[in-house]
Amino acid sequence: MNQTPRTLNRILITLLGLLLMLAGGTALALALVPALAGWWHAATAQAGANLQAVLDATTLPGQRDSWLWIVASLLLLLLVLLMIAWVAQQGKGRTGTIAADYDGDGAPGAVQLSSGVAEQALRAALLERDSILHATVTAFDYDGGGALRIRVVPRLGVSPQAVADEVSDLVEALDLALGMSFPVVIHLVAGARSRLVRADRVR
Amino acid sequence: MSHTELESDRPAGQRLADERLANRELRSSRATASVIAAVLIALVGLYLLLEAALKAIGQPSWLADPEEVAGWLHQLPGNVAPAVLGASGALILLLGLFFFLQGVLPGHLHRHRIPGRRGVVVVDDEVLASSLARRARTEAQVTREQVLVVVSRGLVDVRLRPTSGIPVNADAIQLAVEDEVRRSRISPVPQVRVFVSSSGVVGQ
């Protein structure tokens, strides 16, 4: 429900994995198969010569080193910044405004509905239920609108279908109260709290 | 009873959006592996950046000169003990395998989806297991500690230790648990396996 870039995550992780496997596999093969050493020397000598040629070609007269090092520095700086941006994308998407109406049928001003409205109302209603030990509601940006994620810790042993129906009732009531309906995810979790509560003694 | 039957009255677009939401809830986002990978790449990038920048402004290198490193790589199998080279190669290979598998495997979380009237309902397997355990123990008339239920993607495993001297009917428990599974309407209906242990518990 949050805006973690899942496809990007998988593509980049897979690429990194393949690169590391290639490097590790080469090192392992060189250690295990002595016959590969000749091939490795030839291949790296060729690559080194090519690289040296490029470096020589890009060295300005009077300078000691190639200007390619400056380009490499800039590219590496870009890579580091991209990695920071990638980390910043993980798990974002929580919002403080669940709905906004800027035209308001021609009336001046705008109406914004804080996500606290939905969160507080649902939470208060959920915590009154006997079958529910704990509940948290968070609002996310989803598909250009708001969406609610309801995390419920049911009492141990309660039928999940029954809890889901109860929560659905409350969400439908909220829909009526607000006059709009958001995408909703109801997640029933087994928290530490449900395990610590005393077992029922009637059997 | 299946999802499609229950949700057929919903518009198709809504169903598709729900499907997308549910898929996000049922699979790992790989955020942890991504953060590890990003930090790794950024650290290596920072070091290389430092060396490249030193080279660019014509200063002596910090830890290793790039040309020396290239030469060392060229000499490779000869200048390092084979055991060290092999071990570090294997380590890097395993690290790569970890990231590759994280990227390729589906990464199902231990959750099931159940049909809901409003929105997408996702249930942790533990919650499901505790409701099945409750049903099994009321059927067998044993205490909470005598029943262990493990729910995985395709299988419900019920392990029961009867009270000593009071026989337990495994078939009846099987039927009861299957009925409870049917009632919870989880979407791939798992197979139920009941195992009643031969040794009983004394004094319950």
TrEMBL record, chain A:
The UniProt keywords, alphabetically, are: Membrane, Transmembrane, Transmembrane helix
Q: Where are the transmembrane segments?
A: 67-88
Keyword field contains Transmembrane helix: yes
Q: Which domain of life is it from?
A: Bacteria
Q: What is this protein called?
A: Alkaline shock response membrane anchor protein AmaP
Q: Which organism is it from?
A: Arthrobacter sulfonylureivorans
